[in-house]
Write a structure and sequence with these properties.
Strand order of the largest sheet: 1-2
Largest sheet: 2 strands, antiparallel
Domain RING-type: 63-112
Order of helices and strands: EEEEEEHHHEE
Pfam family, one: PHD_G2E3
Oligomer: single chain
CATH class of the largest domain: Alpha Beta
Distance between the termini: 44 Å
Structural class: little secondary structure
GO molecular function: ligase activity; zinc ion binding
Organism: Rhinopomastus cyanomelas
Protein name: G2E3 ligase
Helix content: 10-25%
Strand content: 5-15%
Shape: elongated
Number of domains: 3
Length: 202
């Protein structure tokens, strides 16, 4: 095994002409990746896939799941959502999240994208079990809830931040990029023809 140097390593790097082998339990410690779909390919630390993110996380960026800081560079231990590109996770945290949610509910906790997010995580070696979520019905409803409050610095609505009407000044627009923040039209001085809005973070 190229990680622990013990015999009987049966997983070979998929890259041609690479002679490295490793044990499955040693993969994470050695920075190796196994893809749990398709041909179930495995890669050593030198030939593993890398995320095609445009920017590294900003300083003081935290993992959305454990709230501890992530590395300031793209690395084996740090993964990002390919859709919103604002959600960063530790590899171990997102793997634990996938194990709890299962394929039916596994999605980006920030932007709620599932299709692109799942394929990216599978490509990067995250195992997503084909089963129902490991939580009760109330937790499942909360996870899929749509953001429903005004996050403007000053909310002008007399009924409060939770008020949302289908049209008019108290129509609630969600951020077109992350959908994790919202604003009433009037609170952000948006006219009735505005259909797209982005929060300050996006």
């Amino acid at each position: 095994c190229c990680v622990c140097r013990q015999p009987r390593a049966t997983i070979n790097c998929w890259q041609k002409d690479c002679g490295r082998s490793f044990h499955l339990p040693c993969a994470g410690e050695g920075g190796c990746v196994t893809q749990y779909f398709g041909h179930y390919r495995s890669f050593c630390w030198e030939h593993r896939p890398e995320q095609a993110v445009l920017v590294a996380p900003k300083a003081n960026t935290t993992c959305l799941l454990c709230l501890d800081p992530v590395e300031v560079t793209v690395s084996f231990g740090t993964l990002a959502c390919p859709t919103c590109r604002h959600a960063w996770f530790h590899r171990g945290c997102i793997q634990g999240h996938a194990a709890r949610t299962g394929i039916s509910a596994f999605r980006c906790p920030l932007c709620r994208d599932s299709e692109d997010f799942q394929m990216e995580m599978l490509y990067m070696g995250i195992s997503i079990p084909f089963r129902l979520p490991d939580w009760d019905e109330q937790d499942f409803v909360a996870l899929n809830a749509r953001h429903s409050r005004c996050d403007a610095s000053v909310c002008c609505c007399p009924a409060g931040r939770e008020q949302a009407e289908p049209e008019g000044p108290w129509h609630l627009l969600l951020c077109g990029s992350c959908a994790a923040e919202g604003t009433h039209r009037l609170c952000s001085q948006l006219d009735s023809s505005t259909e797209q809005w982005e929060c300050c973070g996006c």
